[in-house]
Amino acid sequence: MAEILVATEEAIQKAANLLRNGKLVAFPTETVYGLGACALNSQAVARIFEVKERPFFDPLIVHVADLAMVREVCDFSDPRALRLAERFWPGPLTLVLPKKPLVPDIVTAGLPTVAVRMPAHPVALQLIQKAQVPVAAPSANRFGRLSPTLAVHVARQIGDRIELILDGGKCPVGVESTILELTNGPVLLRPGGIPLEEIEKVIGRVEKASFSGIPRSPGQLPFHYAPSVPLRITSQETPPPPGLRVGLLAFSSVQYPERFAHVEILSPSGDLKEAAANLFACLHRLEEKVDLIFAEPVPEVGLGRAIMDRLRKAEAKF
Ligand code: TXA
Ligand code: MG
After folding, report:
1. How far apart are CA 201 and CA 220, in angstroms?
2. Do 137 and 29 belong to one domain?
3. 220 falls in which pLDDT band (50, 70, 90)?
């Protein structure tokens, strides 16, 4: 079983040493917990795919601590990339840019591009700084399952397969980074922690990738981010079917609490930021307690886009 250590300076140094030695470490970021390996070590990266049971065609995000590291892994000459980095890094924005040869093919699934982000969480930044290497890290869950926003979520899904989990408490943003392709774009590949509206203020109109059979980014697979029980997006008016334990994921208030076996509220004040931060933790609790989840839609603006994207993908799995 993985050791779970509170992310003190000493623990972060231990994790950095493990990374440098080709081992895997789970660590907090501002979005979700990541499962990290040295991005320059193909064997260590291969182990990420094994641990997650993730198909090799699904490329990883490379996490960096400064712009010098960015330039080692990708061509960072696009002026839009620079403007976005100035505005949003460190933070929950991932840029897809032409890759440099230093990055092994296993990281990018053979693509000529690499996804890069500079995380804002101090533990993630310190870990990368201490390791002195770029860190490839997907969310630290099994493939297709709910992303972890607490160290215990990581321990439950993959704790028996890795050595160390750095515990940094709850991830403050709670949904994964926004992924933006700049090579043929700008194209929004995944809505996430930075709202599309904010990005458009910096670089103008962004095309929204629509799913058309072959994903441009496997994050567009229609069935990612799913709880282990079916989820239906529906209004609170819909009566739950009899004979099943049905749970409700409500946005801000509950109309008929007596109808449901368990209820979770994303944000009592109707704040989309708070709702995003609570999304995965609410879904983790619901999947343990009920057979079917009814999820109320949230307004599709700002972080609401990322929330609705995750809910639709959860719904599409069943
Ligand atoms: O917030 C996040 O982004 C978290 C934390 C740990 O940083 N990471 C994360 O990684 O969500 P993951 O592996 O769960 O999702 C990364 C997505 C995948 O859907 C992958 O297909 C896409 O990024 N991706 C990676 N490289 C790509 C590339 N070169 N072109 C297009 N999409 C890419
Ligand atoms: Mg993921």
Report:
1. 24
2. yes
3. low
